[in-house]
Fold NADH:ubiquinone reductase (non-electrogenic).
Amino acid sequence: MRLVVLGGGFAGLSALNFYKDAIVIDSKEYFLLTHRLTDVIETGNPSLASIPYPKGVIKARVLGVDFKSKVVRTTQGHIGYDKLIISLGYEQDTTRVKGNIQKLENLEDALTIRAKLSQVRSVAVLGGGTLGVELAGSLREMGKNVYLIEFQDRLLSFMSKEASQFAEKKLRDMGVNVMLKTKVEEVKGEILKTDKDEIKVDMSIAAAGFRGPRLVEDLGLTNKNGRMLVDDYLRSVDFEDVYGSGDCMTTKTFVPMSAQVAVQSGKTAAENALGGDTRFSYKQVAVVLRIGPEYFGDMMGKFVKGSMAELAKRVGIYRAIRMVESL
């Protein structure tokens, strides 16, 4: 069985761990720990969020797929497949807001932000999810005047109210300007316009607007916001020999974008591509984040903070590193 996997993120390497003979193609030379991009901004050390790929991962950019002939076209030539798993991760859509918005999607973005910070006094972080909350706390610790702007009525809207309230209080106590139920309309020069007011900032960073990669649409696959649509077995609704996993896919019911879900879906996609018949179901065991030195989050449906939350975070990072090193 010639199984080709497009993308070497959490989902792609999970598939490779399940089936070591899979062919993985990625445009980068390293595995990206996306949840550590804030650490790179803090320290300027890219190795905190990157691990070199094993030699078996092919470095190439995907140009297209001939689904009829079962051939992937890449910058390193054509690669045929029997079964294909698309696990291309996510992209950020910054076009929803007019003006100059700095994205935070990959390692290069984190290093770009780090380089600009020496000339920046005030920063607006757009989006109050896990990335936005952690980033706002880090920037404030670095001495910046920070505005954290969230459209919904609370931060971390997908987490428990305890986690949301803890994050808001912690950030406000640090001096972060938390703006809830606020929509950003435009960034014009140093002026950020919202539906309520105007604020002056030196840089605006997007910590929201995540969608599936443009390539999914370019390939002509049925999608929701760029995320390829798959059935309950992660098989593409368009082609029976193509599967989706990770952030670039979703079913008719919403599938969250997270490393845990990506790992689970990568394994299930590989299993089913090899002839299995496993219905995909995901489980978010823990969602943990850090503001300054304090760790907190939700574990098994309950709010946790302190040493237990920190342990859960470190275990998650350790497992991700081991996933790469075991290949």
Notes: The chain has two domains: 3-90+212-283, 98-206.
